[in-house]
Amino acid sequence: MSISLHINSAVRQVDADADCPLLWVLRDDLGLTGTKYGCGIAQCGACTVHLDGQPVRSCSIAVGDVGDAEIVTIEHVAGAEAQAVRDAWIAHNVPQCGYCQSGQVMTAVALLRETPHPDDAAIDAAMAGNICRCATYYRIRAAIHAAADRLPPDPLR
């Protein structure tokens, strides 16, 4: 079945079964391998992408259910929040093995877009679904705070 996807600011045609997980279409059909397979049951966060700006687990969404939603993967995430997160990740030496990092970054970027200056509780709540085998959780939290510090002040504060 031919399916049209709005992905990374382009329309891409894929030939896939409608019930195929989006993750496999991204990786196998489109070659976007930055999105990782971790658990296959939406529990680890390694496969996180943005669907209309919201972080979602691509392993648990059927490609036929995506519709006209805009998909953004780690290869194309951009903007002030994305750059601040990338810079903070490097400055705080967040990755060790690196396997979970695409999902961690995508979740952190979505958090900062929703809450530009989160406190520890907001960070912990947003990042809770992302598992890091290397347990760099304190560095992740510190990096998110550092990224938030690079963003303009929240006018509502």
Automatic annotation (TrEMBL):
SUPFAM superfamilies recorded: 2Fe-2S ferredoxin-like, CO dehydrogenase ISP C-domain like
Task: Give the matching Pfam families.
Answer: Fer2, Fer2_2
Keyword annotations of the record: 2Fe-2S, Iron, Iron-sulfur, Metal-binding, Oxidoreductase
InterPro entries named in the record? 2Fe-2S-bd, 2Fe-2S-bd_dom_sf, 2Fe-2S_ferredoxin-like_sf, 2Fe-2S_ferredoxin-type, 2Fe2S_fd_BS, Beta-grasp_dom_sf, Diverse_Oxidoreductases
**Record's keyword annotation contains Metal-binding:** yes
Q: In this protein, which residues make up the domain named 2Fe-2S ferredoxin-type?
A: 1-77
Q: What is this protein called?
A: (2Fe-2S)-binding protein
Q: Which organism does this record belong to?
A: Sphingobium rhizovicinum
Q: What is the lineage of its organism?
A: Bacteria, Pseudomonadati, Pseudomonadota, Alphaproteobacteria, Sphingomonadales
